[in-house]
Write a structure and sequence with these properties.
It is built from twelve helices and eight strands. With 265 residues, the chain is α/β, with parallel strands linked by helices. It has one domain: Aldolase class I (TIM Barrel, Alpha-Beta Barrel). It is globular and about 45 Å long.
Length: 265
């Protein structure tokens, strides 16, 4: 399996709980200006995931000319359309303000908010029903990596939260592999480690859904990816871009990552 040249390629920026409204607008303006003048292949896309208070502001600022080049995603949602869920946002609300993507299963949501496999499955189901694309995050902490059981650990995350989907729905997902031990630590999985895990994920998808579907799913790497190491990471045959943290908070570094992905093809 290797259909890398035709799979959708994505650089997605997870801003996490950072920036104020002025900084958010400066950042999206810088990214927009770059993309307005850049020639991207049709299957390449940039995504920004601002904090919830700035979602409408950012989404509303993106011109129609950038449709297909720059999209907006939310960092979270609640798997109900409405109700007494104080502090939460429904997928319908997120779609209503022009978002196309939602992160699901990020390691920080799992760790700090106790989100279970079943709860993440509910989110995935609701997002698909609403017409939004889940970016499903999976990955192992350091102790699992050191024990050598990381492939089994990630396989469980996939089986328990997305393998209930039929092939049509599964094909709509983007999957982001995030080695938890490399998030915000400055450590990065080597290109070989990233490729090995991405290949393992694609093999799991193939075993469950067949080679053709597995070969078409976009797999992103998310673990301290930055311009200095992106070319090696993005060049791996099963790595289709990145879910970017710190390097997504500056327009110059984020647009450089878009440029590098464009160069890799």
């Amino acid at each position: 399996m290797n259909n890398k040249s035709t799979r959708r390629k994505i650089v997605a920026g997870n801003w996490k709980m950072n920036l104020n409204s002025h900084q958010a607008m400066e950042l999206v303006t810088g990214i927009s200006t770059y993309l307005e003048n850049a020639e991207l292949p049709k299957h390449h896309e940039a995504i920004v995931c601002p904090p919830m208070p700035y979602l409408f502001l950012v989404s509303n600022s993106i011109s129609e000319e950038l449709e297909g080049k720059l999209s907006v995603g939310a960092q979270n949602c609640y798997p109900e359309a409405s109700g007494a869920y104080t502090g939460e946002a429904a997928p319908e609300m997120i779609a209503d303000i022009g978002c196309q993507y939602v992160l699901v299963g990020h390691s920080e949501r799992r760790k700090y908010f106790g989100e279970s496999h079943d709860f993440l499955a509910q989110k995935v189901n609701k997002l698909l029903q609403t017409g939004l694309t889940p970016i499903f995050c999976c990955g192992e902490p350091l102790e699992i990596r050191e024990a050598g059981t990381h492939e089994t650990y990630v396989a469980t995350q996939l089986r328990e939260s997305i393998f209930h989907l039929d092939a049509t729905d599964l094909a709509r997902l983007v999957i982001a592999y995030e080695p938890v031990w490399a998030i915000g630590t400055g450590k990065t999985a080597s290109p070989e480690q990233a490729q090995d895990m991405h290949a393992a994920i694609r093999n799991l998808l193939a075993a469950q859904y067949g080679d053709e579907l597995a070969d078409g799913v976009t797999l992103l790497y998310g673990g301290s990816c930055k311009p200095a190491n992106a070319h090696e990471l993005f060049s791996q045959k099963d790595v289709d871009g990145g879910l970017i943290g710190g390097a997504s908070l500056k327009a110059d570094s984020f647009t450089k990552l878009i440029e590098i992905l464009n160069e890799v093809g």
